[in-house]
Amino acid sequence: MAKRDRVARDVALAAEVEWAAARAGARLVSAMGEGNGDSPADAFMRTPIDGAAQYEHGLIRARTRAVLAVKRARGERVGAVPYGFAVSADGVRLAAAGREQATIARARELRASGLSLRAVASRLAAEGRVSRRGRGVPGDPDREDASPIALPKRR
Questions:
Q1: What tens digit of pLDDT does each residue of 51-95 get?
Q2: Suppose 9 and one of 35, 57, 71, 149 were both cysteines; which one would form an S-S bond, judging by CB atoms 3.0 to 4.6 Å apart?
Q3: pLDDT tens string 116-136
Q4: Residues with Cβ < 8 Å from 82, sequence gap 6 or more?
């Protein structure tokens, strides 16, 4: 490997990888040379290098979460566009997608009337309501790729 901190971003995982490699008769060797030997000094050096990698991972994760929280607070899109919404003209924010919102409302209405999720999916399909890909809604038993995926829970 190029650098030891690329093995894992977790001290325990790095130790487990090293242990598994040793059990298989192999060794983890860094091209940079840090902690490659069997001496106590090399064993000692591996621990802070792995710890620094874990710390760096934590920093990156915290920064990413903070940025995504700010974007969500501004109403900007983060990740995939959920059903019922579309990217607005500015290319950043989400806007309600009328037809999909109507399908969600209808699904909630049918579910509130006591229908099972499968029955709701069948009814929506019978009414011609389809997914973004033009197929029946998830849970419709007549759909080609019928799967046990359920509709979102009522809120």
A1: 999 999 999 999 999 999 998 888 777 888 888 888 888 887 888
A2: 57
A3: 988 998 898 888 887 777 766
A4: 94
Domain ranges in the chain are 4-73, 80-155
CA atoms within 13 A on the CB side of 47: 4
Nearest Cα to 4, choosing from 67, 39, 54, 63? Answer: 54
Q: Which helix (H) or strand (E) holds 149?
A: none
The pTM assigned to this predicted structure is: 0.52
Site of tokens 């840090």: 34
Closest CA relative to residue 42, chosen from 33, 55, 32, 51:
33
AA identity, residue 102 = A
